[in-house]
Amino acid sequence: MATTSLSVLLSNPFSPPRPHHHRFTPKNQTNLTIRHHHRPDPTSILSSNSVLRCCSFRNSKFQLRTSMGDTAKKTSEDDEDEALVVGEDSAFFDLARQKISSWLLFSLVLGVVLFVLDFAWIDNSGLGLGNAFIHAVSELSDSPEVVMMTLILIFAVVHSGLASLRDVGEKLIGERAFRVLFAGTSLPLAVSTVVYFINHRYDGLQLWQLQSVPGLHQLVWLSNFISFFFLYPSTFNLLEVAAVEKPKMHLWETGIMRITRHPQMVGQVMWCLAHTIWIGNSVAVAASLGLIGHHLFGVWNGDRRLAIRYGEAFEDVKRRTSVIPFAAILDGRQKLPKDYYKEFIRVPYLTITALTLGAYFAHPLMQAASFRLHW
Fold first, then answer.
1. How would you classify residue 37: left for phi > 0, otherwise alpha for psi between -120 and 50, otherwise beta?
2. Which biological process terms from the Gene Ontology are attached to this UniProt entry (predicted)?
3. Could you tell me if residue 3 is inside a domain?
4. Residue 261, domain member (yes or no)
5. Residue at 239 is within a domain
6. CA angle 360, 13, 85 (to 5 degrees)
7. How far apart are alpha carbons 5 and 157 in whole angstroms?
8. Are 182 and 241 in contact (CB under 8 A)?
9. Which residues, 6+ apart, have CB-to-CB distance to 3 below 8 Å?
């Protein structure tokens, strides 16, 4: 709920794998070396035309890997055409590295967060801050379209604003404290926006009615299902979301990042188009315009922040990826490894599949819970 279809509620990836270093010798005699365990100047340029390095910075890790996270190996002239990866291996999950204590702590933190959210924001018999917030915004206009757009705007300003202040905030109060602040403000606003949309999705002016068109329901369902594989790239590291592990800003390059550098934007567009086509009224259009606009801003802002944090390494990733899905693959900038499909046969993607199916079948429960709030 929050980074959003606003059916997305905040999440972050699993830590990158522990690298296994191997030396390799290229066939042609070029200035190509791999250095191990050196701490270079952070301004060093990391590109295909420069000396390649395995770098370890305090806040970031660059490793030359294949699609499965191993150190890059060049054994033939054909292999030399494959692009070396400088970013992190997304969705990598090593069960052997997981600690039961970390996941128990995650469950405890999640339970506390949900309890506080319910008492302070959702439950009207508690503090009921969410009800007061919705009523305050609703007083601005009698139009559900205006209220919907206003809720999205408030969420977008807070969510993207805090994201832009992340570097400064983490220096002032630390990574974990800033994560708590970020989630503690974004999550209630996301919940309010989602609940208002559920309760008012059939208000407003009906612009078209296509629900009786044969096959449309199946097409909309499939589009929504696929959209969540783009919308949830951040579920790759839930322990960072809950600040059980120290939160990091990751430079991902494999998996779904090969398709698009901004999967959440793509997933949000798919989700919005599917829901707007199905519902067909002015409230759905207003919600879609607001959400897509927010994510288009996120494309620019996300690239800007990564460029500041990672410099030339991000420029390398940017050259090999695209915003428009499959564009970099089609024009040859993205070289797919032979086993690229294995990057999707991983625990995080299987988890997304289960949660997406669960959310679909839980739609009646979510709608009933939203109606009881009268937001």
1. left
2. carotene biosynthetic process
3. no
4. yes
5. yes
6. 120
7. 16
8. no
9. 10, 11, 159, 231, 234, 264
The pTM of the full predicted model, rounded to 2 decimals, is 0.76
Q: Is position 148 within any domain?
A: no
Place of tokens 């988890």: 351
> How is residue 341 annotated by DSSP?
G
Count of structural domains, the chain: 1
φ/ψ (deg, to 5) at 142:
-85, -10
Encoded tokens for 328: 């970099």
What confidence tens digit (pLDDT) does each residue in 314-372 have? 999 999 999 999 999 999 999 999 998 998 888 888 888 998 999 889 989 999 999 98
> Residues 32-41: pLDDT tens digits?
333 333 434 4
Range with lowest mean pLDDT among 204-213, 237-246, 257-266: 237-246
Phi, then psi, of 95 in degrees rounded to 5: -60, -35
Alpha helices in the chain (DSSP H): 100-117, 129-138, 144-164, 166-173, 175-200, 216-231, 238-241, 263-279, 282-310, 312-320, 327-330, 347-361, 363-373
Token pair of 198 as six digits? 């559920």
